[in-house]
Amino acid sequence: MIVGIAILLIFQLVGEAIAYFLHGVVPGPVIGMALIFVTLSVTRGRFFVTPSRQAVATSNALLANLGVLFVPAGVGIVQHFDLIADRGLAVFATILASTIATLIVTVWCYLATKRLIGRANNG
Asked: Most C-beta atoms within 10 A of its C-beta, which of 15, 43, 51, 101?
């Protein structure tokens, strides 16, 4: 599990370094996630067979305990409840709009990918 966490943190560190040089245009963890995806896709897991299995096991363990990671966010909400009371409607509207936009973009990407795969299989 330690090797898996080390792999994930190394890719996040590289992503953070790239984000620093890009002046924060894209968050470091997003860059790191893209880098680990590209690395595993290009090597098809051959080069990182054991480490990638450990990274997958570590990721599954983190996802299984994801609720614990939200405790600090919950504490922050309770501490700033007065701000939420003042601006709650705007926050709710923003969350609702961003959720709908995310769903629309996700469906669009799914349909576009399905069409591309269909063309590749038929062509």
From this structure: 15
CA-nearest of 104, 39, 33, 35 to 112 is 104
> What is the distance between the alpha carbons of residues 106 and 83, in angstroms, rounded to a whole number?
31
How far are the Cα atoms of 3, 30, 106, 108, 112 from residue 100, in angstroms, in the given order? 38, 21, 10, 12, 18
HSE, CB side, 13 Å, CA atoms: give it for residue 10.
Answer: 11
- Cα distances (Å, whole numbers) of residue 82 to 57, 77, 96, 106: 40, 9, 21, 34
The percentage of residues in the chain with a pLDDT greater than 70, rounded to a whole number, is 92
Whether the CB-CB separation of 68 and 75 falls below 8 Å is answered with no
pTM of the full predicted structure?
A: 0.47
Closest by CA to 69, choosing from 59, 82, 79, 81, is 59
Question: Is 32 in contact with 14 (CB distance < 8 Å)?
Answer: yes
Using CA atoms, how far apart are residues 28 and 19, in angstroms rounded to an integer? 5
Q: For residue 13, what pLDDT is reported?
A: 93
Cα radius of gyration (the chain): 19
As a whole number, mean pLDDT of residues 1-28 equals 86
